[in-house]
Amino acid sequence: MTAATLPGLEPVPTPAAAPRPGSRAARMALPRSVDVLKQIAIEYGVCVRPLAMRRTDLDTGLTEVIDLPCGATREDKCPPCAKKNRRLRQAQIREGWHRDDEPLPGPQPATEAQKSLILFRAHLEFSRDEASRACQWDQVEDLDEAIREVEEAIAAEGLRGRVGPPHTSTDDDQGDDDTGRRRKRSTKRRQDAPDLPRRKVEARTVGRTYTAPDGSTYRPSMWLTLTLDSYGPVRPDGTPVNPNRYDYRRAAWDAVHFPRLLDRFWQNLRRCEGWNVQYAGCVEPQRRLAPHAHFAIRGTIARDTLRTVAAATYHQVWWPPVDVQRYTADRPPVWDEQASAWVDPDTHHPLTTWTEALDAIDDDPDAEPVHVVRFGTQVDARGVLPGTEDAERTIRYVTKYITKHTGDCHKATTDRQRTHLDRLWRALRVTPCTERCANWLLYGIQPRKANAKLKPGRCKGKVHQRDTLGIGGRRILISRDWSGKTLADHKHDVRAWVRALLGVTTDSTTANGTTESSTAGSPGQLVDDQGATAERVRHAWELARPDDADVGPLSFRLMRSISERARWRTELLAAKDRAEQGPADLSATQHIAPQHDGEEDQVGRGPYDRAGSGPDQHE
What we know:
- The chain is an alpha+beta fold.
- It is built from 13 helices and 15 strands.
- Among the domains are: 116-157; 210-482, no CATH class.
- The strands form 5 sheets. It has a 6-stranded antiparallel β-sheet with strand order 8-11-5-7-6-12. Strands 2-1-15 form a 3-stranded antiparallel β-sheet, with no helix packed on it. Strands 3-4 form a two-stranded antiparallel ribbon.
- Pfam families: RepSA (PF20199).
- It comes from Micromonospora haikouensis.
């Protein structure tokens, strides 16, 4: 029995002795210079794994190696590039969220030259139909070649899209055993789903304008969260209370088909509301590892309507039944070279083909979908006013996890959490993801376009990986008419803002050999990143090999980039201060021409900064 220690006489902890100078422990305690270099590169926003690209001037033959950012979207690969992508997405959401005008203008009227090409294409189509009726196949081939040339001319003239589909289809999705006929499913709504009103969708994307009692008008928007149904009670840490009764199979199927359910929700919401609702959001895992989605919605919609549409939305998966798993990854079917099919390892009978399995579903009048995906009862929606701190906080919340892998959003710190993740992952490994998934062989069905390279139970699809947890598609979901711009357009706006702030003009060589400033529509202008002109390309790019003599070590390239980025930051801050003070001479910064995308994002005072002096349309 140990005697109790008297108060005030507790033993004083012995401080850890410092390692002896010159010892191995002292040397290992020193920071590594390579790690410090990468840390500084991250602080200055320099890509830590740049791509060495060789640029060759086609006029002079001059060749130089230029480091381009890798463009990674995950922090575990490149934190600076991932941070830049996150800020760019935030700017994209911010620009389109509270718009009060339509982002995309209507198409311009067609020119006479464009109309004449369409008319000529119509004459060729008429001649081809007559030759086909007369079985003049040599003329059909000549007309097909003429149609191809005319369609190329139509595209070069500036018309979007195709006039009509091609006559000959080279779709490799059609298997050898597929008849090519389109399978039709009943569009009748399920009896267990409530009906929704259907209105004609108006060609508008902006929401309703409200008038306050004082006469002022405002146009609020919304923030929405959609979750999946419950698979069993869970603890606060996300783990199931009873793992044996937790429905991991349904959780895996819901995660795989969650994107289709979201598409169906927006389709139903637009039909129910009667206008083209626009959204921008992100798909993330909950603590229980089930996917859910956060969306910024332009305009306002009644909360009861959102809950009703979510309850009435479902997605049916019309695939062959997978009730019984006939094979395992350790004892799978085998490939028969002579029959060019997968067969049973014992009886050597061919497995059911994909077409036969679907025909069995079509012939059964009582057939049911193999799985039905639905939303849960938890639908969170609230209004957000433009220009408030709540709007900025919501944007940061929506993009909180886009720089992380799905499996890294919630770290498993306990054995219970790790066991829950493993059981969900094992269920995802045997869940078919597409019509060509190798996991169909585990259920005695040959997938579409089956071949000998398939590995049952080891499909390479992203939904089966431990890092994705079933979320294998795009995690950022933005509607077409959100901001009227692509991500490349937003990057172009960032570079234009920086060049306008610094007063930088890029010089290009004209046709007669002179040099003039590159302005819109000037002769001799080179093709920019937006393809605004049709001039020839002056430079040829190719990936440089790491063992090339002119490609230096990575540490040298990082140090040069850090020094260059530090000078850019200094010049940008100086130009920003002069712009805030008033018009000033920016001739001192005329020599700077940034080449990297978004070089101002680390300054903290560029287009990404809400309080910056850049225009709102530049995010």
